[in-house]
Amino acid sequence: MSTQHFFLSSPAAALPERLREAFADIVPLPADALLARLPTLPAAQSLVWLSNIDAQWQQALRQILQTQPAARVVLLSSVPEPAEGLRALDDGARGYTHAYGVPALLQEVALVIEHGGLWVGPDLLRRLVGSTNAALAAQQAVSKAQSPVAAAPGAGPNAWALLSAREVQVARAVSAGRSNKEVADKMFISERTVKAHLGAIFEKLGVRDRLQLVLRLAASPEPASAPTAEPKP
Asked: 122-146 and 82-90 helices cross at what angle (nearest 10)?
């Protein structure tokens, strides 16, 4: 059964037009009606979209998860900020993205979440990458000081080494927070080709979304031999 999309509507937050374009069957509901509806559907068959235009979005998110703990919720932000995204994810949201994203992007967000992944905006992703890299560097420094042998390289396969040259270029661009379209434009290839490369990358590295990909790559030093030249049109 296909996913049923809901939008939590309120006097302050009306259904965004781009969300309607992305999901023609989306159902806008006020809080009371939404909370009554969710328990009647398996969590895997529904996805709820909230808007940060509603100042009570955090309270609404908590109520939704209290009613249906396995509910999948995405927060739409008119002006995405890493701190807000972290609050949403910490409170249990599965995604955080721009409210004015194009329909194709919103559909991609939904697809990732439907497959069990998380979706975060590029700014938050870069912050998470930076924090992860700093934490890993500190951990490696401590491990090396305590046990130089244990800290030596080669304990496991380097993620970058598992990828083809083209996949390395795609992975690097995605890790920088670029969308599929931005990667396609940067590499002079189609979005369909980008998706195909990402699918192969996810399979090779055993990850299911962009955030896991970034964390996996951050744990592997990028080899000096990795291709860096930009492809020519």
From this structure: 80
Q: Which domains does the chain possess?
A: 4-120 (3.40.50.2300), 123-218 (1.10.10.10)
- The CA–CA distances, whole Å, from 22 to 4, 103, 169, 201 equal 13, 4, 29, 26
**Mean pLDDT, all residues of the chain:** 84
Please say whether the beta carbons of 226 and 140 come within 8 A: no
**95 phi, psi to nearest 5 deg:** -155, 155
Q: How many CB atoms lie within 10 A of CB 21?
A: 14
pLDDT at 155: 46
Which secondary structure element, helix H or strand E, spans residue 77, and what is its range? Answer: strand 73-77
Cα-to-chain-centroid distance, residue 196: 17
Instruction: Please list, in sequence order, all residues whose beta carbon lies within 8 angstroms of the beta carbon of residue 36, skipping any fewer than 6 positions away.
Output: none
**Cα separation values, 112 from 118, 126, 164, 213, 230, Å:** 7, 19, 23, 13, 28
Owner of token pair 């931005």:
182
pLDDT higher than 70, residue 136: no
Distance CA 196, CA 157 (A): 23
User: Residue 61 has which token pair?
Assistant: 């998110």
0.70 exceeded by the pTM?
Answer: no
How many other C-beta atoms can be found within 10 angstroms of the C-beta atom of residue 181?
15
